[in-house]
Structures are given as C-alpha cells and as structure tokens.
C-alpha cells in the first residue's frame, strides 16, 4: 500500500503545498513530508487512522476512497484487474474535476 504517495498525488491535484495541508490538519510540515514519503518507523509505516481521516477530509475525499486508491491492485481479489484499473481511473478523473 502506498498511502503516502496517494496522499501526495491528491495534495498536488488539489493545488496544496505541504505547508497548506499541514495547516489544515494541524500537523507539522515535516510530519506531512514523512507521511508522503512513507518514511515512518517500520512498525508505524502508515499514518494513524486519525491522521489519515484528517488528511482525507482536508483533501475532500472519503478515507475509504483514499485507501482504495493506495491499495496495490494485486491485493484486490474480488474484482478483476481490468475493472479495478477502470474504477481507479474514474475516481482519479472525478477527483481531478472536483471543485478546489
């Protein structure tokens, strides 16, 4: 799962700097940077659920969508790869066209 990379992608899509996102979620810029780079303690590679919820909210997206997009598609076994890729592409287009 690349939650940090997905957060970074959507932060940029929303036209936010790390500092702006950090301010919205009441975190330090260095903490946002570490989250985006997936550079946390090995036992805590992903941000806490509370931090992820705050970040998702600041990016105007449901946490479930953020997690879905961050999940490696090979791990989603209920749907075939073609459908997962199409769904991911549609979500990305919707988010790109959402009001900023």
**What is the radius of gyration computed over CA atoms, rounded to a whole number of angstroms?**
14 Å
What is the terminal-to-terminal distance?
26 Å
- Strand residue percentage: under 5%
Residue share in helix: 55-70%
Please give the count of helices: 6
Label the overall shape. Answer: globular
* SS-derived structural category: mainly alpha
CATH class: Mainly Alpha
Topology overview:
Layout (H helix, E strand, L loop, with lengths): L2 H11 L4 H8 L3 H8 L12 H10 L4 H8 L10 H17 L3
Describe the structure.
- With 100 residues, the chain is an all-alpha fold.
- The chain has a single domain, classed as 434 Repressor (Amino-terminal Domain) (Orthogonal Bundle), CATH 1.10.260.
- 62% of the residues lie in helices and 0% in strands.
- The model has no long low-confidence stretch (mean pLDDT 82).
Summarize the structure.
The protein is mainly alpha-helical.
List keywords for this structure.
mainly alpha; 100 residues; 62% helix; 6 helices; 434 Repressor (Amino-terminal Domain)
């Amino acid at each position: 799962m690349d939650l940090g990379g997905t957060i970074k992608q959507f932060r940029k899509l929303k036209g936010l700097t790390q500092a702006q996102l950090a301010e919205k979620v009441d975190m330090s810029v260095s903490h946002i940077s570490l989250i985006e780079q997936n550079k946390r303690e090995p036992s805590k590679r992903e941000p806490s659920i509370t931090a992820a919820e705050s970040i998702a909210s600041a990016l105007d997206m449901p946490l479930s969508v953020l997690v879905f997009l961050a999940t490696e598609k090979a791990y989603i076994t209920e749907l075939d790869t073609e459908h997962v890729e199409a769904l991911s592409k549609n979500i990305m287009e919707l988010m790109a066209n959402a009001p900023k």
